[in-house]
Specification:
Elements lengths: L1 H19 L5 H23 L7 H21 L8 H11 L2 H23 L5 H17 L12 H4 L3 H13 L7 H20 L4 H12 L2 H6 L6 H17 L2 H17 L7 H10 L5 H16 L1 H10 L7 H4 L9 H12 L8 H24 L3 H35 L25 H20 L5 H7 L1 H12 L11 H7 L10 H20 L18 H4 L9 H10 L5 E5 L17 E4 L5 H7 L4 E5 L6 H7 L3 E5 L3 E5 L13
């Protein structure tokens, strides 16, 4: 109950601040609320961290003071209300249009299902267990953001911390890790809102702009990541929010746009390649727009965004860290290496999701028939050959998208193989993108067709003077990202998820497609089918298994081979072998799921130990339990055995060493 109150205080404070700005648009008001909410909770965490005061009491007191200040400002500003009138009219326009209303219903169903998983599904994906949640739990134990000593992976320290600092706030407020996916889910909502707002500000109507947002909600990556503890949606949400606010152009919105762009860099460095797109939008506003945008960026980065880079510089000597798990992905521009990286990432966007080849054939036949019917109808209406071709494309392309995706992937693989830089390298991560995995999926077949064709269509329309430079910049977000990203990075199977930001920036242009009702009906039907099937067959959270539905699973069941990572035996042995509030030393490997050590209520205290000298440090901290990885660091167990510690296997991942003096000792360790 107290945790809900603290979260409600933070939300109310952000709403009061945004309402006090008296913005004419509800979209802008809500996006400013999002920026203030997320930036505010992280600022509270950072302000209290030097005193190790990130505790429920101090966080509550700070939030109460901030709420009182925001309430005072709101009152002095004349108690402005949220601008709801235009929003009501927009909702009425959407629900009165049957195809659009049906697309909205599917989107709400998807978002509702995701929210159910946010509140009920135990965490079970690799990155969340290995470092996203593990670093937030370590900070909560310490009482604030800090550089974690003896961290088994550089990712615990050196990656930018903003999203995990949000998690730290939630962990401290609630006293447990149950809301681990909430930042990502809120990021998805902000993303969809920004797409709608950007489309409206580019001149599209309410119905078409809404459908562009609904379409993004059915793409595989947003679907799959919204219920994880990762940070790609959080990062992309700030880039999309910045673009939407820049398109509005009032001074307060420009300042919030600069702040959003800065916060994106505090979440993930991979938002940097979309900054040129935002700079084009800013330049389009004129010279007077630069000062408020720059002010917002400097203030947000100085107060909140820069501290991850500062800690990296202090402890590693570089702004981006130097851990081998991070630096291995960095490189210098080269030829044809940089081109090969860009083509690899592009190839993985050809994603048919979970569709079987039989389903793809059925959809292709349906698409062919729909195209013929639409062409015949257009000819009967006297629209000529051009009208018939347009009608056929609007009706057929969505159904043919999976087949087009396979054809595009095969063509790119053939061309690159002939050029000596093959992108199809075999294996689950090197071939055609299939399945529903939050780390490696892309955007589904319609998303693939959209992502690949949008830059070419946008350029053609700009040259024909059909769109302005703002729309062109958004349409070219993906190639700009690929160019800048490939100059400094190598390809790996997980880089596809970095594309959420540029694809989201281009998404408002999909509104042009939905001007055709035929396109709306066909696209909504196929996108809804793919989106629902993706959720049903999510590898980490399948809708139905022998153990039940995701919201019915215990943490152990969520970690089984069927649903998760096959860590259920390790988890069960851990629960049986360690007291609920034990102090635990950990000699862990770089990919070990160390978040499991903290327990569901984060009651255990975990201290990472170096391989060399682990026994002496365990004794120094009065640790009676030590977990040792069964990987290359297993040698650390030898020193404990020599001291008479008892050994127990925790599944295949870890060994548990117990001190002969364990007795009833639990939470009496020393830092």
């Amino acid at each position: 109950m107290l945790g809900a109150l603290l979260i409600a205080l933070a939300v109310a404070t952000a709403l009061l601040v945004a309402a006090s700005a008296r913005l004419a648009s509800l979209v802008s008001t809500l996006l400013v609320t999002y920026v203030v909410l997320t930036g505010g909770v992280v600022l509270v965490v950072l302000a209290l961290s030097p005193f190790r005061a990130v505790t429920r009491g101090w966080v509550g007191a700070t939030e109460a003071v901030l709420f009182a200040g925001a309430l005072t400002v709101w009152w002095l500003r004349g108690r402005p209300r949220l601008p709801l009138a235009a929003a009501r009219a927009a909702v009425r326009e959407v629900v009165r249009d049957p195809p659009c209303a049906a697309f909205l219903a599917v989107t709400l169903l998807i978002l509702g299902y995701e929210l159910l998983l946010v509140f009920t599904m135990p965490v079970n994906n690799t990155d969340s267990l290995t470092y996203h949640l593990a670093r937030a739990a370590a900070w909560a134990q310490h009482g604030g953001y800090f550089w974690i000593p003896n961290a088994p992976t550089a990712r615990l320290n050196e990656l930018q911390p903003f999203a995990e600092q949000e998690l730290l706030f939630l962990f401290v407020a609630t006293g447990k890790g149950a809301l681990y996916a909430l930042p990502q889910y809120l990021g998805e909502l902000a993303l969809l809102l920004a797409v709608y707002g950007s489309a409206r500000r580019l001149g599209f109507g309410v119905r078409t702009a809404a459908c562009a947002a609904f379409l993004l909600a059915t793409f595989s990556l947003p679907l799959l990541e919204a219920t994880t503890g990762q940070n790609d949606l959080v990062a992309a949400s700030f880039a999309a929010a910045a673009a939407c606010l820049l398109l509005a152009g009032r001074r307060l919105e420009l300042g919030a746009a600069g702040a959003a762009a800065a916060l994106g860099l505090a979440v993930k460095v991979t938002t940097a390649p979309v900054l040129p797109v935002l700079l084009v939008l800013l330049a389009r506003r004129g010279r007077r727009a630069f000062l408020p945008a720059a002010t917002g960026a400097v203030v947000a980065f100085g107060l909140v965004g820069m501290w991850g880079y500062v800690l990296d510089l202090v402890h590693s000597g570089t702004l981006l860290g130097k851990g081998r798990e991070i630096r291995v992905y960095y490189t210098s521009p080269s030829w044809p290496g940089s081109l090969h990286t860009a083509l690899h990432v592009l190839y993985r966007t050809f994603d048919v999701s979970v569709l079987s080849y039989r389903t793809i054939r059925v959809l292709a036949v349906a698409g062919g028939l729909a195209a013929l019917a639409a062409a015949a109808f257009a000819l009967r209406r006297g629209r000529g050959a051009v009208g018939a071709a347009r009608g056929a494309a609007f009706a057929g392309v969505p159904f043919l998208a999976p087949l087009l995706t396979i054809g595009g992937a095969d063509a790119l693989a053939w061309i690159t193989a002939r050029g000596g830089i093959p992108v199809h390298v075999g294996g689950w991560a090197g071939g055609l993108n299939r399945g529903a995995v939050e780390d490696s999926s892309a955007f589904g077949p319609i998303g693939a067709v959209f992502a690949v064709t949008t830059p070419f269509v946008a350029l053609a329309l700009y040259l024909a003077r059909r769109i302005d430079v703002r729309a062109l910049a958004l349409g070219l977000a993906l190639p700009v990202f690929l160019l800048l990203f490939s100059l400094r990075s190598i390809w790996d199977p997980w880089t596809t998820r970095f594309l959420i930001a540029p694809v989201a920036l281009s998404a408002p242009l999909a509104a042009a497609w939905f001007r055709s009702r035929t396109a709306l009906v066909a696209t909504a039907a196929v996108a809804s089918l793919v989106g629902v099937l993706t959720l049903v067959h999510d590898v980490r959270k399948p809708f139905s298994t022998s153990l039940g539905h995701p919201w019915q699973l215990t943490w152990s069941e969520a970690l089984t081979n069927e649903e998760g990572l096959g860590l259920d035996r390790t988890f069960d042995a851990l629960q049986q072998g360690l007291p609920a509030n034990a102090c635990v030393g950990a000699v862990a490997g770089v990919d070990d799921p160390t978040y499991l050590l903290y327990g569901a209520t984060l009651a255990r205290r975990v201290y990472y130990l170096p391989v060399a000298g682990a026994p002496s440090q365990a004794l120094q901290h009065h640790l009676f339990y030590v977990v040792v990885s069964t990987g290359v660091d297993r040698v650390a167990a030898d020193g404990f055995r020599q001291l008479g510690w008892r050994e127990q296997a925790l599944g295949t991942a870890w060994l548990l060493l117990r001190s002969p003096a364990t007795g009833a000792a639990t939470g009496d360790c020393r830092v």
